[in-house]
Amino acid sequence: MKIALAQLKSESGNVEANIKKHLDFITKAAKAEAKLIVFPELSLTNYEPGLAKDLAFEENDPKLDIFKKYSTTYNINIALGLPLKLEDQLHIAMAIFKPKSELLFYCKQYLHEDEVQFFQPKKNASIIQFQQKKVKLAICYEVSVDEHLENLNSEKPDLFIASVAKHKKGMKNAQNRLQFISENYKITTLLVNNTGLADGMNCCGNSFGFNASAKKIAQLNTEESLLIINAE
């Protein structure tokens, strides 16, 4: 299955512009015959915890309808980042669109200490089936949390995919971690990062993938780009 990692430069707080950019990336991924496209953490708003409350999406937010349409029209699965309000609690979430299917959400279960003043964690399933592939999802800080990995042997996912917003030092640590996961669990690991300014930090891109033998199969530079990986 071809998977697209959408390394984009989101505009802080400009949801309308970010939606347009997402749709452009989805169209390009579909033309490249990708069956799943994954965006960085909080990609629809940019990673801006201080703005998240005012920019939060509801479960049935009409602004998300266009992604349902694109998913079905282009026969592509879409996983994008947004702040999600559920029962008066704010979560870092991944909205998951499948062709001709109901909208799903994966919410971040383990928060970095800098996020707890803005968001709440939420226990929920991190395994999602995309066509013939079972995927373990992680949002940024979760990559480093041992508890997030403790069921990997029993869950037996085909892929581990992380959606992040990281600067250069954070990406170095994340790369080491995903290589470790690949080596120890014998699965392909992919990570998509954003690029540009977010929450006062310079996100460095460098999205990448390791195969099930812990060998790097592809990596982007710091520029906004789309990385297509054929995940066996």
TrEMBL record:
<dbReference type="InterPro" id="IPR003010">
    <property type="entry name" value="C-N_Hydrolase"/>
</dbReference>
<dbReference type="InterPro" id="IPR036526">
    <property type="entry name" value="C-N_Hydrolase_sf"/>
</dbReference>
<dbReference type="GO" id="GO:0016787">
    <property type="term" value="F:hydrolase activity"/>
</dbReference>
<keyword id="KW-0378">Hydrolase</keyword>
<protein>
    <submittedName>
        <fullName>Carbon-nitrogen hydrolase</fullName>
    </submittedName>
</protein>
<feature type="domain" description="CN hydrolase">
    <location>
        <begin position="1"/>
        <end position="232"/>
    </location>
</feature>
<dbReference type="Pfam" id="PF00795">
    <property type="entry name" value="CN_hydrolase"/>
</dbReference>
